Amino acid sequence: MKKKMTVTCYVIVLIILSCVLPARSDGSDHKYKAGDPVPLYANKVGPFHNPSETYRFFDLPFCAPAHAKEKKEALGEVLNGDRLVSAPYKLDFMYDKDSEIVCKKKLSKEEVSQFRSAVAKDYYFQMYYDDLPIWGFLGKVDKDGKSDPSEYKYYLFKHLHFEIFYNNDHVVEINARTDPNALVDITEDKEVDVDFIYSVKWKETTTPFEKRMEKYSQSSSLPHHLEIHWFSIINSCVTVLLLTGFLATILMRVLKNDFVKYAHDEEAADDQEESGWKYIHGDVFRYPKYKSLLAAALGSGTQLFTLTIFIFILALVGVFYPYNRGALFTALVVIYALTSGIAGYTAASFYCLLEGTNWVRNLISTGGLFCGPLFLTFCFLNSVAIGYSATAALPFGTIVVIFLIWALVTSPLLVLGGIAGKNSKAEFQAPCRTTKYPREIPPLPWYRGTLPQMAMAGFLPFSAIYIELYYIFASVWGHRIYTIYSILFIVFIILLIVTAFITVALTYFQLAAEDHEWWWRAFLCGGSTGLFIYGYCLYYYYARSDMTGFMQTSFFFGYMACICYGFFLMLGNVGFRAALFFVRHIYRSVKCE
């Protein structure tokens, strides 16, 4: 019976993964003969400056094909807001067309108003031809010599010209441009007759099919962009070298003096009163308050760190090439589900190290610590998208697939990891014995409080990454293409090093001030960079972007809050691990009685 249930679960998981994993979106090496139909799909339309606010192509009154066929999409494509449907244009292989009429349409007053509103908001359209992206604008606003917006003229483009390049039997490149002379005046609310026209011109090229996507990735590798990226790397490296050099020199000298002093004190009179970090050796390994929550945070942080490393590996081997629709979202969902066992094992094993007994509650906390806020944010933002009828609203079937992944993959792996962690039988191995009663912490100045220390801890790591952050934001919340993953990986390594070093330094100064409650402080100081990144979100939204509207604003700040919270957990885990290693090392190096 158990074997049958196991087989059934595996079959269900395989079915889910087949729905999740995307089909190839690089053209699948399609070969065509002259006159063969080549698939052209219309994807979406939306305001150019609001990347999250996109709508179905035929939500606007374009010419619709007689038999519109929707393309089956993988989970990542749906999460990305893609809704591909067959377009009304016929672009047969190597078949030129000149001013072909798509349809003759009489636009009603409501449809004219709809188009005018779209043109005023700078709407763009996106299509895919043999899985190559096509972009274009719907119209233009004539503002020449007019200061009053009520005097602006609004025009709709009615002639679309496709220029397609081929190499033997492959489609290699496509460009779409609008005819600036073929305009329809839609300024006034009145019925308008429009002849939607398109032209097709085929040209031969020597570019091989295998390199057809390179033109999209080259835009982020232009010399002036690379100079800025390398300046960012140099800036970060200088920060790391100065910080690590300073901290290594200070800590090595101070610790050496401490070790000599404590060794001398042991040889001298024993009744001499101790001071400094050795003075609290009986309290420094006293288990923290809310140890179940700390263990859950470390488990979630370790899982997110593992997820990030896997994403970088996939990026560096070329999986996330430009316009590989939904590949990143698919990878995030699948890898997060498969790494949940790491979260369960880490949380349960650490919780049991701290002599915790209620490991089931600890696992529940671990499972909900990151997914809980993400789920609540998703529910709110999906409701907003449904209200706007945007493509960002997930269909019911997609929500069911995500729920099944959580129920049949994420949760079981979390439990299995938790059971393995509970049975790991490891011991904490504190170098010093903990006293029965905690020592009173002496009064400390305000700048040694948690919030000032977090501000100091977060600023340096953030200063090492803020230049690269702009390009990431411009890619995620804009239309810039980002493909320099090697530089991004170097910046990520620098971020980890700076976070670890600054947390270790602040932990030492905290212990030197005889404050033994370092556990939570180390985690909070390590994760504080996430708060700085969220502060950068405010700057980017108001100073560097043109995003507007309730939907785009809520999507930007809602999902960035989840991302920054993920960074907080991940970097908090890194900071805490570094601090724990350091504290164990220094107390192991002195004789504690």
TrEMBL record:
Pfam families: EMP70 (PF02990). It is a multi-pass membrane protein. Residues 1-25 form the signal peptide. The keyword Signal applies. Keywords: Endosome, Golgi apparatus, Membrane, Signal, Transmembrane, Transmembrane helix. One of its GO terms (cellular component) is endosome membrane. The keyword Membrane applies. SUPFAM superfamilies: MFS general substrate transporter (SSF103473). GO terms for biological process: protein localization to membrane. The chain crosses the membrane at residues 228-251, 293-321, 327-354, 366-388, 394-416, 454-473, 485-506, 518-542, 554-583. It is found in: Endosome membrane; Golgi apparatus membrane. Belongs to the major facilitator superfamily. Phosphate:H(+) symporter (TC 2.A.1.9) family. This is Transmembrane 9 superfamily member. It comes from Nicotiana tabacum. The gene is LOC107832151.
